[in-house]
Write a structure and sequence with these properties.
heterodimer, A: alpha+beta, five-stranded antiparallel beta sheet, four-stranded antiparallel beta sheet, 40% strand, B: alpha/beta, 37% helix, binds thiamine diphosphate
Chain lengths: 170, 562
């Protein structure tokens, strides 16, 4: 089972090392990892995509929680929003292909962020499945490069990854 | 005040009285400041000896052990000892020097990424970048090392930080928002545990190293309920080894009574243990009849990690037991005890008598001569298992051995740490000829500080435990385990250090030898030449289950059964 996990951490040096090291050491399968700061100074938020059975997932959460700099761990099993950003450089040889790629771009609501003589860079945001299909659609035209950020996630509604009352909600 | 002085002051504020260590270039400012500090320093001959000594100091005293080394090679010599302390959940703070900040990452002389290397084997670690952080980091390190599930914490201190002028404050408040161990067990779960216990017909109490500090509560709980008690290797001493409720140690070399009790139990109350595979054997066949497993542990990640748990109780063993004690009732276990008693009397620990001097009889002789009243340390191997089997320690914090990592060479440095922590106690290191030779240079530390430790080497001329496995599982192909052709004369080796040496070779000299060791005024290294092909039994082969237990060497079976 694929799980998206959010982890709130103190953004100390090496905290990412600790997390990836933990996955490597314990044999957990880490599919993607995305990190960024939050609106609270000193706190970063990490989205992890992990696959495994319930027992593995329970261990992933518990072992993450053991890290001193980890403040909160949530497995997004509840309704949540999930997004990934991809940049795709695609080969376009002639006008015909350019039009065909444009059709795909519109269908997926992607954006063109760079235009060159023989290539385009497209930007797409969506859940990981949508990006997978986008890439499938583009594949016949010759994908030159792909950069995906890995999924980020957030619970819907009132739920937040709060630490404690004193701190601002994140 | 310099950073180096601030460090020592911060350590003083944590109540540190002694540091085990070894100096070098990158930690010299701290050693310079140590010259004027009230903190005592024990100079070891190898950093590994230092971290093991600090570990035993912690385990014997219940306080935090401290070790200090230079950068690079000095710090890396801590790796095995830190891993050992981590596996056995021991509170140790390691302080390492590092190259000046500007050189970090440049492959400078004696530079190593010590925080990187020790990440998987420490509970937490720090690279201090700002001299004014020193008091906070020290405060946090001691707090993290000693609370929750204890463990080693490393502080890496660049040399220029040690030399910088400190302008900060020592009045620091702990602010670790991601670290809040749960110590009080959940009342609902405690209630559920007690209810299950009352209904159980064949309950057992399994105790691990996490309950060493809860020995009083444990004794009261066991006596009130009348529940049979089993202690793991790490739990030895947490419950008195001569108590009628005690069934012994479980697992690979555990007693028949303990392993059968687990096999037949309908309820397991496990406190402060982590179901190590040396205890469970094959997990899928572990305790097949236990429909209730209650697991008390301070580390939530241990609960359900390996064994299915029905009543999880996250909390400190002592606090949880105190709560449980309030609701505990005497259990009606007469028929269960008849079964247990039968196994206990039919299958006591025993060794096959031989004309040669034998390791178990040496240990038994020491146990009898001391009444079990000693701090025992061991190396790793057969002698360690024999010591666990035949030296039933009577008090907590008195059996100090490497459980999780199984580190050969800990015996002597453990004895040193234990003696420094509890100088009034008799400290005996039961060691193997192989294990002892991994850290024997620490005899110099024994001499330097006049530490009265008794080293008892059970010399079988082999890496005995490996030889035993080769004997049983590799058709007696004794590959690279023979030591006798190149062992030193241990008694003379001791004498070279100025330590009393004793050698005993014949069975009839056993008591004289024991007497010589125990009556010596000061340290002794005694070599007991024991039967070279002894095996440790009972034994459950690796990956086996209680039913697969073998009671004696297959080739010697008939003789013993008679
Ligand atoms: C550092 C280290 N290296 C290797 C081993 C593997 N090992 C476990 S027991 C053992 C033999 C120990 O021999 P000795 O200390 O003479 O004790 P004996 O078993 O003979 O009592 C070995 C090599 C280990 N546990 N630790």
């Amino acid at each position: 089972m694929r799980h998206v996990i959010s982890v709130l951490v103190q953004d100390h040096p090496r905290v990412l090392n600790r997390i990836t090291g933990l996955f490597a050491r314990r044999g957990f399968n880490l599919e993607s990892l995305a990190v960024g700061t939050t609106h609270v100074p000193g706190l970063s938020r990490i989205s992890l995509v992990v696959s495994g059975d319930d027992h593995t997932l329970e261990q992933v959460e518990k072992q993450l929680n053991r890290l001193i700099e980890v403040l909160k761990v949530t497995d997004h099993s509840e309704p949540h929003v999930e997004r990934e950003l991809a940049l795709v450089k695609v080969h376009v040889a002639g006008v015909e292909e350019r039009l065909a790629v444009k059709d795909i771009q519109e269908a997926f609501r992607a954006r063109v962020v760079d235009v060159a003589q023989k290539s385009l860079i497209l930007e797409l945001t969506g859940d990981s499945k949508k990006i997978d299909s986008f890439l499938e659609a583009l594949r016949p035209y010759g994908i030159l490069e792909v950069m995906r950020t890995g999924a980020v996630a957030m619970s819907r509604g009132e739920r937040t990854l709060k630490v404690r009352e004193k701190r601002e909600a994140v | 005040m310099k950073g180096s002085e601030a460090l020592l002051k911060a350590l003083e504020r944590e109540g540190v009285e002694v540091i085990f260590g070894h100096p070098g270039g990158a930690i010299m400012p701290v050693y310079d400041a140590l010259y004027d500090s009230p903190i005592r320093h024990i100079l070891v001959r190898h950093e590994q000896g230092g971290v093991h000594a600090a570990t035993a100091y912690a385990r014997a005293s219940g306080r935090v052990g401290v070790v200090m080394t230079t950068s690079g090679p000095g710090a890396l010599n801590l790796v095995t000892g830190l891993a050992d302390a981590y596996m056995d959940s021991t509170p140790v703070v390691a302080i390492t020097g590092n190259v000046p900040r500007a050189l970090i990452g440049s492959d400078a002389f004696q530079e190593a990424d010590v925080t990187g290397v020790t990440m998987p084997i420490t509970k937490h670690n720090y690279l201090v970048q700002d001299v004014n952080d020193i008091p906070r980091v020290v405060r946090e390190a001691f707090h993290i090392a000693s609370t929750g599930r204890p463990g080693p914490v490393l502080i890496d201190l660049p040399k220029d930080v040690q030399l910088s002028e400190f302008t900060g404050t020592f009045e620091v408040e702990l602010d670790l928002p991601g670290y809040k161990p749960t110590t009080k067990g959940h009342p609902k779960q405690i209630e559920r545990a007690l209810e299950a216990l009352e209904k159980a017909e064949k309950p057992i109490l399994m105790v691990g190293g996490g309950a060493q500090h809860a020995h009083g509560e444990l004794l009261a709980f066991a006596e009130k309920t009348g529940i049979p008690v089993i202690t793991t290797l790490m739990g030895l001493g947490a419950f008195p080894g001569h108590h009628p409720l005690w069934l012994g140690m479980p697992g690979m070399h555990g007693t028949v009574a303990a392993n059968r009790a687990i096999h037949h139990a309908d309820l397991i109350l496990a406190i402060g243990l982590r179901f190590d595979d040396r205890v469970t054997g094959k997990v899928s066949r572990f305790a097949p009849h236990a429909h209730t497993v209650i697991h008390v542990d301070i580390d939530p990640a241990e609960i359900g990690k390996l064994v299915r748990t029905h009543v999880p109780i996250v909390g400190d063993a002592r606090l949880v037991l105190r709560e449980m004690l309030k609701g505990a009732k005497p259990l009606r276990l007469a028929s269960w005890w008849r079964e247990l008693e039968d196994w206990r009397t039919r299958y006591p620990l025993r060794w096959k008598p031989r004309p040669h001097l034998q390791a178990p009889e040496v240990i038994r002789a020491f146990a009898e001569a001391t009444g079990g009243h000693a701090i025992v340390t061991t190396g790793v191997g057969q002698h360690q298992m024999f010591a666990a089997q035949y030296f039933p320690v009577t008090r907590p914090r008195s059996f100090i051995t490497s459980g999780g990592l199984g580190t050969m060479g800990v015996g002597l440095p453990f004895a040193i740490g234990a003696k420094v922590a509890r100088p009034e106690e008799l400290v005996i290191d039961f060691d193997g000829d192989g294990s002892f030779q991994m850290t024997l240079q620490e005899l110099a530390t024994v001499v330097k500080y006049g530490l009265d430790v008794k080293v008892v080497i059970l010399n079988n001329g082999y890496l005995g435990m490996v030889r035993q496995w080769q004997d049983l599982f590799h058709a007696k192909r004794y590959s690279e385990v023979y030591l006798a052709d190149s062992n030193p004369d241990f008694a003379r080796l001791a004498e070279a250090y100025g330590i009393k040496g004793v050698r005993v070779e014949r069975k009839e000299d056993l008591m004289k030898g024991v007497e010589a060791v125990l009556s010596a005024d000061g340290p002794v290294v005694a070599e007991f030449k024991v039967y070279h092909e002894e095996g440790v039994f009972p034994m459950i082969p690796a990956g086996g289950a209680a039913e697969d237990m073998i009671l004696e060497h297959p080739e010697e079976r008939e003789e013993v059964e008679a």
